[in-house]
């Protein structure tokens, strides 16, 4: 359950030619990430900063000026254009099989969702405008974004997310054994072995891969998962049913949870913090604290861009804000998440930042955890 590319009937059935194109995109992205992007900071020092100084009579100072200096480098501009093009190629390579196979996928999803022996559930809120600041963006250029919903049987958003996400991750160097849920499982084993959850909440579940993994890992637990998009959730629900695990999916904003106080032992999120603004992030943290039981734990896992060693590295990592539909990437990178969690009411000595390596040891993940105080003030 933790591995990537788990086969199930909701995945589009790609032809040999389509699979070949997808593998070509993975290879291109590996090249751009491992050999080309790795030189961007050097390009700043050797080309960009000297060109900026010649133009302005001084070295770049602010993050905006560092970005300007990066674009003084011809090689950096070439990488930027190629990286943007490769991201667009992801969606073309997975979009062709999705739309060709759409009718079959939607029929399979509907049958699984209506099966008399279904294990989980799906609760949607048609007509409500949930989280418009996120719903209105094509995040990481995914066509239609997370909230895309083309009709009562639509599953396109989820199909885009899972298939496109696999190509993106493989292109970053992730292995098939790497998973976001696996990072949290490792953290629980190493740092919180006493946690044996009976009720789990997954915030911002997207296509439901992590949600299904929690249900598989903790079969005695009741697993709930939320996201803003109906199409994403239809896909996630059908995917979980196809894999034989019980997950209860809800269309809901993480900053406005419709659950009772003290109702979960474990609240998790995967790659959600960098997709939301500062105000929503703080409300989501407060809501997570509200619904977790005293002594329970909340874990936010996200990308490792916060580990940038210098201001130049940080600015280079903020490329996604302007060019990849990541509206809040820079906001996430520059946030004081420990302060946010403490201000939300988590026990101050329990708020800890972790750097957890992926199974492949090529990538690492940022994780921040906190406990609800046993006795609320």
Q: What's the arrangement of secondary structure elements?
A:
Elements: H1 16-36, H2 40-56, H3 63-70, H4 74-100, H5 102-114, E1 121-123, H6 132-135, H7 156-171, H8 180-191, E2 199-203, H9 209-217, E3 222-227, H10 230-243, E4 248-251, E5 264-270, H11 278-291, E6 292-302, H12 311-317, H13 319-323, H14 329-333, H15 337-344, E7 352-357, E8 364-371
Parallel strand pairs: 1-4, 2-3, 2-5, 3-4, 5-6
Antiparallel strand pairs: 6-8, 7-8
Helix count?
A: 15
Low-confidence blocks of residues = none
Helical amount:
40-55%
* Anisotropy-based shape: globular
User: Could you give a short account of the major beta sheet?
Assistant: 8 strands, mixed
Essential attributes:
alpha/beta; 377 residues; 15 helices; 48% helix; eight-stranded mixed sheet
Characterize the structure shown.
- The protein has 377 residues and is α/β, with parallel strands linked by helices.
- Helix content is 48%, strand content 13%.
- An 8-stranded mixed sheet has the order 1-4-3-2-5-6-8-7, with helices on both faces.
- Helix 3 packs across helix 12 (311-317), helix 4 crosses helix 7 (156-171) and helix 7 (156-171) crosses helix 10.
């Amino acid at each position: 359950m933790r591995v990537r590319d788990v086969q199930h009937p909701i995945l589009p059935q790609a032809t040999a030619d389509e699979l070949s194109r997808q593998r070509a995109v993975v290879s291109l992205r590996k090249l751009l990430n491992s050999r080309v992007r790795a030189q961007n900071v050097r390009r700043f020092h050797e080309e960009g900063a000297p060109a900026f100084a010649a133009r302005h009579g001084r070295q770049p100072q602010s993050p905006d000026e560092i970005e300007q200096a990066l674009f003084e480098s011809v090689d950096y501009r070439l990488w930027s254009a190629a990286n943007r093009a490769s991201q667009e190629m992801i969606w073309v390579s997975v979009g062709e099989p999705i739309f060709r196979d759409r009718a079959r996928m939607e029929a399979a999803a509907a049958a699984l969702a209506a099966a008399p022996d279904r294990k989980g559930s799906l609760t949607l809120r048609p007509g409500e405008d949930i989280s418009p600041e996120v719903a209105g963006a094509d995040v990481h250029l995914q066509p239609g974004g997370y909230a895309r919903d083309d009709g009562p049987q639509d599953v396109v958003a989820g199909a885009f997310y899972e298939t496109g996400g696999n190509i993106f991750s493989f292109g970053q160097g992730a292995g098939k054994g790497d998973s976001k849920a696996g990072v949290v499982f490792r953290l629980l084993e190493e740092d919180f072995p006493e946690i044996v959850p009976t009720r789990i909440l997954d915030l911002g579940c997207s296509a439901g891969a992590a949600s299904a993994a929690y249900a598989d890992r903790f079969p005695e637990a009741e697993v709930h998962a939320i996201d803003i998009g109906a199409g994403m959730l239809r896909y996630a629900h059908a995917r979980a049913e196809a894999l034989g695990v019980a997950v209860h999916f809800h269309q809901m904003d993480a900053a406005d949870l419709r659950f009772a106080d003290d109702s979960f032992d474990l609240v998790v999120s995967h790659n959600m913090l960098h997709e939301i603004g500062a105000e929503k992030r703080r409300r989501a943290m407060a809501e997570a604290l509200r619904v977790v039981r005293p002594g329970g734990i909340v874990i936010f896992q996200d990308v490792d861009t916060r580990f940038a060693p210098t201001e130049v590295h940080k600015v280079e990592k903020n490329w996604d804000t302007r060019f990849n539909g990541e509206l809040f990437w820079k906001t996430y990178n520059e946030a004081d998440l420990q302060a946010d969690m403490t201000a939300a009411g988590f026990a101050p000595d329990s708020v800890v930042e972790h750097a957890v390596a992926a199974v492949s040891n090529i990538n690492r993940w940022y994780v921040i955890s906190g406990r609800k105080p046993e006795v609320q003030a």
